[in-house]
Amino acid sequence: MSESTKKSGGWRENKWVRAAIPALLLHCSIGTVYCWSLFSQEIADYIGFSKGATEWAFSFAIFFLGMSAAFLGNIVEKDIHKSSLIATICFATGMALTGFFIWWGGNNKGNVLALIGIYVSYGFIMGVGLGTGYLSPVKTLMLWFQDRKGLATGLAVAGFGAAKAIASPIMTAMQTKLSGMVPDPADPSKMISDGTGTYKMFLILAVVYFVMMFVGHLLLAKPAGWHEPQGKGEKPSIIATLKTKPITNYIGIWLMFYINITCGLALISQEKMIFKCLGFAASAGMLSTISAIFNAGGRLGFSSWADTMKDRNTIYKLIFVLSIAFTALVMLTNGIKTGASSMGLAILVLALIYIVNAGYGGGFSNVPTLLSDHYGMGSISAIHGITLSAWAFAGLTGNQVASWIVKNFGSEETITYLENGVEHTAKVNPTGYQNVLIFTIVLYIIALLCCLLLVKPTDKALEAKKAKK
Question: For the chain, what are the domain ranges?
């Protein structure tokens, strides 16, 4: 044992072992929910349904993530070991059952029970694991890292964002290598994948993520010196805690969190097609990975930056101002529609996508610390859980509204591109993607107004302002 470990009281009292590492193990596992787009088309083809039908599994997963966090926040508050175990069991079981129903659907093509089974498994069961798993390490991190709460929560939530970048190439390789080959019905002389790799991947990863999350569950612990308020006299109700500030304060936080997620999902859900509009079809996968890196970087960077500020709400003001500015520039220049013929405009659109990704991630990592600054640490898990209901509703509106706009405005164009020496075609709707920006900029402006008018500075921020005078 090193001297530094001895001085810190051994590994049982080491903040990295008891908080940071288990948080990363939990969040890097559950964050793979964002890999859905990698295999949604393959699942749809394999079980005999449209991609639009299977997409609801992801929307349900995000909805139940937020709602389970809202309703189970009190369990997380009382016992992080129980909540992290619930997360481990639900997430791994949901993955395994998803794999089972994909397999069953492949053997019973077009059977609606397979689709419902995937909705329940990936949407509801995994969703409960997502919500409890997301919440479980957050308060613990803030207790261990009292002076750098933003860094701590940013580190964990960055794991959630980085999970897609880490898991995407692994999942893609597994789908290919675990699949068998069969003759192409259209041309028997050619061999194509039989699609079985997807359900095999789910079954294998269910075991891998169970082990990762169970280790995180065993390691996760609050500091020995932390006294958790228990009695009625010690611990006020959530409603009483929220009443310590004007209710408009909390409404403002909830709304700007909801809007940031809605706008992020609206643009992120269309980003691959936007890359193709810009002439980057062959590089769309790599550019999406860069998006995931910006998403994770925003979670860590914005939250760490907020540690240096007297009022964490300033971070949200910066996120919304940057998002409004770059969205307006792309709108004024018709960047998505004309970017394919202008490298400068194409770079501007890429900048918008990456800034939105960074701000989307930063909004997640800053909300628990902003809430703790306003309402204290006593009931932070429960209050944070209720606030995550915004994520639930954004999961049902962001990408769905964007898809509706793209479907009903503009017209599809067919583009051709080379990938690995093979010519491919794709249908894109530049006008539709451009119109999504009208929807997002209006919401970003509303979010900025919430920041400025509804969310008041904390007492600490006001005192610091007076001290400067």
Answer: 13-220, 245-469
